[in-house]
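Exercise 3.2. Students should predict the tertiary structure of the chain below and write it as structure tokens, then compare their answer with the key that follows.

Predict this chain's 3D structure.
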Amino acid sequence: MTREAVRAGFAEFVEDIVDTAYEEFDVVAVLRGESGASSRLVSQLLKNSRRLDRTVVRPELRDYRRRILAQFDPILDYAADPDADFADYEAQVRDTDVYLTHLRPDVRGDRRADVVRTQLDRQRRLAEAARPLVESPESEFWAAAVDALDRDRAAELVRTHFAVGAPLREFPDAFVFETEIDPGDVFGGPLVSRLPSVTVEYTDEVARVVERAERAVVESTLTELDERFAEN
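Answer key:
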């Protein structure tokens, strides 16, 4: 199986999570909990929540999806090279990791080193778990899973290694997701020139919706996994 086919299988899983997370994302709750914005600006944004959804929420979740998939590329490069040392890919994995690029600036010293090492180890284990799929002669994701793995190992791959929200659960205070909202991008009119841009943090909402989405998608994927293995 080619690395591209494995990536396509992973991409489908990630897209399902992001689509489900988008349906769950509560931009109103984010704004109401934002202490850094003026009440006037929050009030105006809440009145335009649909436009805010279109101009801010959707692009942010699309960017999250893009980054998750981009971080999978060096992982698959390592998986496709069984003679490689992970140290040769470590810098690429670190630089593309969506969570390590969102580490809070005040996470320093031993704490920062622990988060980085834990995440790099997580990505290395994912690569090693995906290696049998890359090496399989099958050209389709599920066919490769059935060919290269038994049911328990395939379920472990889904439960553990495709758990994209695991870092948020393990280190809930280590990451920050935020975006700058420019009122001019959300709504027009005379008020725009008087309302400043505001940086809004939505880390807690990302953690909430990704966890719920991941749980739902993992359950549906495990159901499909059982069906695929029952056919063989």
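Discussion points: The mean pLDDT is 86. Residues 3-230 form one domain.
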